[in-house]
Design brief:
The protein is mainly alpha-helical and about 110 residues long. It has helices spanning about 5-30, 35-60, 70-100.
Length: about 110
């Protein structure tokens, strides 16, 4: 690729990145509304509860008397794990959006 083509590609990518930021800013603001530090704290609390419930189910599974795993217990562990993982991914997405400047943290 020539220097001129490389420059054009870099410029196009910068323009697209700027457009992506603006699109994300608009959509996050329109759909999620204002996001505050308290929202981050509430999400951290929710993640903590998901983690605790998941660990509770894991420990119950580990403490079965006969060492067998019943399907019901296995389903409960899986459901709690999915909730925990989704909450963690949600927090990562929120943090990523903040770090990318898709929204400004509002005062509480």
């Amino acid at each position: 690729m020539s220097d001129e083509n490389e420059f054009q590609v870099r410029r196009l990518m910068q323009q697209l990145e700027h457009q992506f930021v603006e699109i994300n800013k608009r959509n996050i603001s329109d759909i999620a509304g204002d996001i505050t530090e308290q929202d981050f704290n509430k999400l951290a609390e929710a993640i903590s509860l998901c983690r605790a419930n998941y660990l509770k189910e894991v420990l119950q599974m580990a403490n079965t008397d006969d060492g067998s795993l019943c399907e019901r217990l296995s389903d409960q562990v899986r459901n709690q794990r999915v909730l925990y993982e989704e909450a963690m991914q949600g927090f990562a997405a929120l943090r990523h959006a903040l770090e990318r400047g898709y929204f400004v943290l509002k005062a509480d």
